[in-house]
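Posting this for the archive.
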Amino acid sequence: MHHNQNELTHYSQISESEEVKPILRYSGEDYLGIPTRNDIVRENENGSTSILERALANQKNIPFMPTDIEESNEYINGTPYYILRLYGPLINGQKAAVTITSIKIFFDIRIPDNKDIYLFEVEIKNILANEKDDKEKAVDLSKIKIEHIKAFSIRGYHTEKKSYLRIYTTNTFQRKIAFNIIQKHNLETASDDHSTYYRKVAREYGISLTG
């Protein structure tokens, strides 16, 4: 028997006692007359939708506070790159999704004071090229980039900036493998959040998060 999508669909289930019990499944349509988010927005937006549309058309900033976050990968030429999606309501009540791309994924390794910068970089490249992490996974060295930077160490008190190697990867999976390998050598690291990378992104990009 076929049912209209706006109706409840009835099924039967036989329990262990052989008693026939009805199962009701709602089709997701408007049978119950419950308004959707869009219905509520249309009735209560009081002109805010027009304000938003004008602001977006003129490329102006609009109020947005994310209430949910999703970390994901976007594949470009077969390579996964880290992206961050933010979800939250706009001033008129509509739900919006903001996708942030081109996020830099990295951690830093402090160069020991008694080490030549370039020789130390060669050592790090050899470590990453030849070693594996605790789960026997190797880093894809072709996706690794290294930059020389200077920054204040968070350990101890220093009046001058120290030299670091910044290790860039394409996504958090490769970063985790590379970081795990480096950790085995008891080197001082920075920008080395172990989990919830989105919080590191929020700090560095000035993104306000709730919760």
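The beta strands are 9-14, 20-25, 68-76, 79-89, 95-100, 105-110, 145-151, 162-169, 189-190. The chain is about 25% helix and 30% strand.
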